[in-house]
């Protein structure tokens, strides 16, 4: 069995974004395509000879082939050991957990998150560093630069290795350790949450439905919820990971998790519902006939954090992405801890977590997490909620209502205008930017603009500045409109309009969200000219 050196030529555009390199499966299946990227990555890493690498993915189409290629290339490049999830499976947060738990050099996560899977759909590869978090930009930039002048890669000339049985084998001089993908992760969860109290709650008849959306969290949810916590069999639906996610779009929101939503808003609704996405880092949380916005979820978890053993000593700070509602800030203020507002994208939380400035963090886009790993974590958020429910012995809705009474309610919604022609979207944002100085003082009925800017962030740890992160329009009454272009859309441009209105009066906590936000929706349109420029009447997706 010998390492062979294969001559190759560069593929254009192997530029990893913040969530790695994401392309169609067809692109990845071209001869040498994945190999070029993996070799470019290895060429940019230093001092890894003899160390451990973690490998796993969300189980989507091409996951297994990719794992085999990576194993053979890791061996040929001199890694000492690869820890690979059984069947090639590791959720994104579990990969982060395994890297940290075993002090691995780094890890390769195979996923395209919530994007559909299958031969004609998406695949992705992402590199995480030793702290368990996504590689910083200087690493991904170096990998991209290397990919543009790569001329050969190293791979072991050997048959595929069995990754379906837990155990250890050797590949050339490298150890391949096939690990149970759930074990380290479940053990970490047991240190954070009161499993005994949650188990008792299930034993007393508490009913829950978890929709794994035929994606990676199935095995985790089965093992933890139905296994360790004793939830009734059938609690987990769509729990078998499928290469094409059963043809579904594994994104946990009210639109895509329709099976769960129908049940939770139906006649015999369970007490609690939750869903996670393709690779297990996102979460949606529901009470009986009740939807919890991700922004509220972060605030409620923060306010109740000390009920969970892992957070009993209190939080160091709370971080949220700028478009996330300011509900979490109110909790931070009451607790007397730091509140951080970062640009969209999980990577900005890493420094705050590493520096011990923040413990919890979250985004309005169904991402919540803490310093336990360096990725957002879907099942962790669900277990956190179960811990809070077990401790408080109240329905989800009652907990939210009490929270709103104490802190006020932030009515919140995001309107996405998808697939706008790029030139139109760019012109709209450019004109908005130019109009910023003229906005303060403008009145729209009862709404007066108090301030407007284009969000810029100075990282408190390394001092780096990230600018032009979205237009913020603040009203004197406390309402807010944020407008920015998506950085992850694939077709044309996506305009995201985030609408938010603060309501302190508990007598007004039962209003319809869209109706309450209607004046702001109209103002956003008036200021940005969305309908006029796009020729469309309504947003594509409203969450
Ligand atoms: C979207 C979400 C953002 C999240 C990112 C990656 O980015 O809005 O919160 O971090 O996906 O999951 P966007 O398309 O808005 O740039
Ligand atoms: Zn994801």
Q: For the terminal residues, how far apart are their CA atoms?
A: 54 Å
- Ligands present: 1-O-phosphono-alpha-D-glucopyranose, zinc ion
- The CATH homologous superfamily of the largest domain corresponds to Alpha-D-Glucose-1,6-Bisphosphate, subunit A, domain 3
What would the CATH topology of the largest domain be?
Answer: Alpha-D-Glucose-1,6-Bisphosphate, Chain A, domain 3
Number of extended strands: 27
Query: What level of helicity do the residues show?
Result: 25-40%
Uncertain parts: none
Q: Could you tell me the strand content as a percent range? A: 25-35%
User: What is the tally of helical segments?
Assistant: 17
Just give the CATH class of the largest domain: Alpha Beta
What does this structure look like?
- The longest helix is centred in the last third of the chain and has 16 residues, at 513-528.
- This protein starts with a strand and ends with a strand.
- It is globular and about 75 Å long.
- Helix 2 packs across helix 3 (63-77), helix 2 (33-44) crosses helix 5 and helix 10 (294-303) packs parallel to helix 11.
- The protein folds into three domains: 2-180, 3-Layer(aba) Sandwich (Alpha-D-Glucose-1,6-Bisphosphate, Chain A, domain 3); 185-407, Alpha-D-Glucose-1,6-Bisphosphate, Chain A, domain 3 (3-Layer(aba) Sandwich), CATH 3.40.120; 409-542, Alpha-D-phosphohexomutase, C-terminal domain (TATA-Binding Protein).
- It is an alpha/beta fold and 543 residues long.
- Strands 2-6-5-3-4-9-8 form a seven-stranded mixed sheet, sandwiched between helices. It has a seven-stranded antiparallel sheet with strand order 20-21-24-25-26-19-27.
- A hairpin with a 4-residue loop joins strand 24 and strand 25 (480-485).
- The protein contains 17 helices and 27 strands.
- Bound molecules: 1-O-phosphono-alpha-D-glucopyranose and zinc ion (ZN).
- The site of zinc ion has 7 residues, from loops.
């Amino acid at each position: 069995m010998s390492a062979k050196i294969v001559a190759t030529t560069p593929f254009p555009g192997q530029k990893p974004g913040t969530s790695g390199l994401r392309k169609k499966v067809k692109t990845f299946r071209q001869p040498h395509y994945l190999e070029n990227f993996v070799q470019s990555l290895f060429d940019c890493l230093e001092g890894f000879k003899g160390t451990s690498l973690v490998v796993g993915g969300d189980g989507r189409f091409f996951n297994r082939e990719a794992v085999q290629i990576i194993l053979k290339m890791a061996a040929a490049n001199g890694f000492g050991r690869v820890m690979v999830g059984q069947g090639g499976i590791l959720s994104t947060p579990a990969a982060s957990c395994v890297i940290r738990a075993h002090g691995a050099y780094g890890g390769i996560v195979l996923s395209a998150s919530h994007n559909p899977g299958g031969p004609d759909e998406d695949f992705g590869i992402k590199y995480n560093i030793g702290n368990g978090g996504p590689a910083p930009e200087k690493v991904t930039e170096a990998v991209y630069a290397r990919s543009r002048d790569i001329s050969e890669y190293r791979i072991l000339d050997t048959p595929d290795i069995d990754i379906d049985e837990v155990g250890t084998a050797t590949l050339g001089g490298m150890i391949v350790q096939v690990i149970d993908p759930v074990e380290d992760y479940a053990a970490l969860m047991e240190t954070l949450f009161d499993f005994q109290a949650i188990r008792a709650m299930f034993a007393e008849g508490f009913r829950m439905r978890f929709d794994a959306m035929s994606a990676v969290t199935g095995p985790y949810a089965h093992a933890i919820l139905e296994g360790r916590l004793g939830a009734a069999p059938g609690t987990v639906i769509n729990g078998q990971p499928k290469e094409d996610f059963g043809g579904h779009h594994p994104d946990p929101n009210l639109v895509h998790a329709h099976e769960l939503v129908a049940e939770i808003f139906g006649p015999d609704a369970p007490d609690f519902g939750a869903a996670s996405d393709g690779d297990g880092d996102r979460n949606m949380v529901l009470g009986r006939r009740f939807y919890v916005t991700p922004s509220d979820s972060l605030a409620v978890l923060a306010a109740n954090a000390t009920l969970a053993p892992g957070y009993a000593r209190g939080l160091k700070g709370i971080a949220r992405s700028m478009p996330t509602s300011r509900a979490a800030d109110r909790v931070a203020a009451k607790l007397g801890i730091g509140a951080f507002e970062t640009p969209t994208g999980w990577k900005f939380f890493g420094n705050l977590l590493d520096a011990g400035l923040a413990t919890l963090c979250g985004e309005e886009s169904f991402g919540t997490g803490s310093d336990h790993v360096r990725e957002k974590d879907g099942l962790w958020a669900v277990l956190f909620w179960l811990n809070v429910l077990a401790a408080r012995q109240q329905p989800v809705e009652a907990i939210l209502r009490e929270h709103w009474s104490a802190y006020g309610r932030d009515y919140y919604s995001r309107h996405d205008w998808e697939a706008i022609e790029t030139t139109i979207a760019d012109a709209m944002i450019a004109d908005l930017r130019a109009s910023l100085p003229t906005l303060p003082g403008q009145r729209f009925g009862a709404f007066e603009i108090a301030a407007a800017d284009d969000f810029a962030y100075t990282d408190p740890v390394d001092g780096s500045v990230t600018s032009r992160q979205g237009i913020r329009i603040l009203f004197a009454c406390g309402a807010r409109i944020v407008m920015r272009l998506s950085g992850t859309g694939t077709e044309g441009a996506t305009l995201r309009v985030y609408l938010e209105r603060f309501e302190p009066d508990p007598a007004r906590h039962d209003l319809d969200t869209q109706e309450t936000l209607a004046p702001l929706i109209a103002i956003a349109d008036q200021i940005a000219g969305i309908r006029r420029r796009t020729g469309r009447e309504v947003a594509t997706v409203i969450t």
